[in-house]
Amino acid sequence: MSCVHTSCYYHAYTAGPRQIAISMAAAVIEGQLKSAVAAYKEYQEAKTKLVTTRTQLQSQINENEMVLEELTRLNDDSNVFKMIGPALIKQDLVEAKSNVNKRVEYIKGEIGRLDLQLKGLESKSKDRENEVGEKPMHFLFVVHGLSMKSLMMFWIKFQFADYEASTAASVLERSAKLRQQG
């Protein structure tokens, strides 16, 4: 009968310190990646809810603006009724216009508030997206045993040089060269 962890213990006894450190670093990076992906999904779900709410509010504005347009077409002596529950209550035309204008302004304010929340969520979502994209690169450097100095030098060269690292193979080649240099 074998234990699930037997292979782990065997690996610990047969692997050198570098392989153990790489395995541990890989586990940490994997945990960070899962956390970043989960946070990214949460932001996307919240963003979807805000967009749905904003769409509903926009349709309410359209509806209220149509009502306001109809109210402006009426004569000053026209009868206006407001439905309150099952009853129709007579209302002054000026008061009705005022109420609809206030409602439109309130809804526009809510849309503005939602837009600010959406902008904040997009920023946070973009940060998480970048974090998710950086983890595999960080893992690559850990696996190939680059020091932090080599990592920084590679990143600076990658950011400001005129070459493109278009494939993982070219990144591996460059990381190997940097490891030999530093």
How would you describe what is shown here?
This protein has 5 helices and 2 strands. It is mainly alpha-helical. The radius of gyration is 31 Å and the shape is rod-shaped. The protein has helices at 6-14, 17-73, 93-143, 148-160, 168-181, and strands at residues 80-84, 87-91. The chain folds into 2 domains: 33-132, Orthogonal Bundle (Helix Hairpins); 144-182, no CATH class. A two-stranded antiparallel sheet has the order 1-2. The longest helix is centred in the N-terminal third of the chain and has 57 residues, at 17-73. Mean pLDDT is 75; it is low at 1-13 and 160-168. The protein starts with 5 loop residues before the first helix and ends with a helix.
Radius of gyration: 31 Å
CATH class of the largest domain: Mainly Alpha
Number of strands: 2
Name the assembly state: single chain
The fraction of residues in strands falls at: 5-15%
The percent of residues in helical segments reads over 70%
Major sheet strand order: 1-2
Mean pLDDT over the full residue set:
75
